[in-house]
Amino acid sequence: MRSKSMARTLVTATVICAVGAGGLVTAGTAVAAPSGKQQVVASESVAPLAVVNLGLTSAEAQKLQRWLKTYFGYTGAIDGQMGTESWKALQRFLRQSSGYTDAIDGIVGPNTVKALQRWLKSAWGYTGAIDGIAGSGTQAAFKRFANGLS
C-alpha cells in the first residue's frame, strides 16, 4: 500500500512540475512575441553613421582629417575613420574646388564621388571615367592625394 501511495505522489509531483514548466515555457515565448505594434523612426532624427574610407588606411585617413580640420571646418576626432563629419568637410572642399553642388550631408553618394573624381583627375593622376563609382582607380588616386598631405 505504501508503494502505491508513493508512486501516486511521484506521478502527481511529476505532472505538477511538467504543467508548471510548460507554463513557464509558454510564458517565455509569449513575453518574447512582438506585440504587433511597429515603431516608426522619423528620417530627420537618423544620421548616417557609416565609415567610408574609400581604400584609405587609418593613417592616410588621419592625414586627410588633419588637413580637413585645418582648412575645411572638420571638427571631429582625428581617428582615421572617414565618417559623416569627415565627408561633410570633404564636400565643402569639393564644392570650392570641383563644382560639387549637392547638399553638404556627409553621404558618399555618386555626386560626391564624381566631384572627387574630377578633382583627382585634375591633380592626382586619376585617368578613369567621371562616373560616380569609387573603383580601384579612384581609390588609388585618393590614396596618392592623402599620402601627399603633410
Please tag this protein with its features.
150 residues, mainly alpha, globular, 5 helices
Could you walk me through the main structural features you see in this protein, from its secondary elements to its overall organization?
- There is one protein chain.
- By secondary structure, the protein is mainly α.
- 58% of the residues lie in helices and 0% in strands.
- It has helices spanning 2-32, 58-71, 84-98, 110-123, 136-148.
- Helix 2 crosses helix 3, helix 3 packs across helix 4 (110-123) and helix 4 packs across helix 5.
Task: Give a summary of the structure in a few sentences.
The chain has 150 residues and is mainly alpha-helical. It has helices at residues 2-32, 58-71, 84-98, 110-123, 136-148.
Q: Please write the string of helix (H) and strand (E) elements.
A: HHHHH
Residue runs with pLDDT of under 50 for 5 or more positions: 9-33, 40-47
Query: Which overall shape is indicated by the principal axes computed on the Cα atoms?
Result: globular
In helices, the fraction of residues equals 55-70%
Q: How big a fraction of the residues is strand?
A: under 5%
What structural category arises from helix and sheet content?
mainly alpha
- Over the alpha carbons, how many angstroms does the gyration radius reach? 30 Å
Number of helices: 5
What does the average pLDDT come to? 80
Distance between the termini: 96 Å
DSSP E strands, number? 0
Major β-sheet, in short?
A: none
| Oligomeric grouping of the chains | single chain
